[in-house]
Amino acid sequence: MSTENATPNATTRLNKAMMGKLVVVAILMFGFGYALIPVYKQVCELLGVNTITQKDDVAKNTQVDMSRSVTVELDGNAHGPWRFRPVQSSVTVHPGEMTTVVYEVVNIQPRTMVAQAIPSYAPQSAGPHFKKVECFCFKQQTLKPNEAKQYPVVFYVDPALPKDVKTITLSYTFFEVAGAVAQQ
């Protein structure tokens, strides 16, 4: 009988020892995982990889051509019951430089209207080099009766613009969309 009783006790002792070892391994794994973040940051800092840019290290856009300037003349035409115009008549930019201009539109009708703006460029060769990032012309606009809105146009002039082009005219024609129903 002592042999039968010894086997379960030995098994219990072995199970407890194994459980103790597994708990120690789990604690060590958790500690390693917890310590990994500061160790990773230190290693990256020493090697100069995956570093976060400091506020003093503001990178300059190297794609801006500071050696030349282009004047962008702004124009607005309204076909319909609108007052539509750019807030400023022109802006001088360096090719590659991100610029924002604003157009203002006023619905002078006593009803809600849906409108769309269509851009055009002069000279025509400048069109492919005029890159709009944000523009109210990308979608239809809804204006309530007598409502006034200002719409930004964010753009840059591609540095590949031919050197002989010194002035670009950006002109928008703002017109009512026939058959469009204003969402109220």
Automatic annotation (TrEMBL):
Single GO molecular function: copper ion binding
Keywords of this entry: Copper, Membrane, Signal-anchor, Transmembrane, Transmembrane helix
GO cellular component terms listed in the entry, alphabetical order: plasma membrane
Pfam families: CtaG_Cox11 (PF04442)
Family per similarity comment: Belongs to the COX11/CtaG family.
Role noted for this protein: Exerts its effect at some terminal stage of cytochrome c oxidase synthesis, probably by being involved in the insertion of the copper B into subunit I.
Protein name per the record: Cytochrome c oxidase assembly protein CtaG
Organism per entry: Zemynaea arenosa
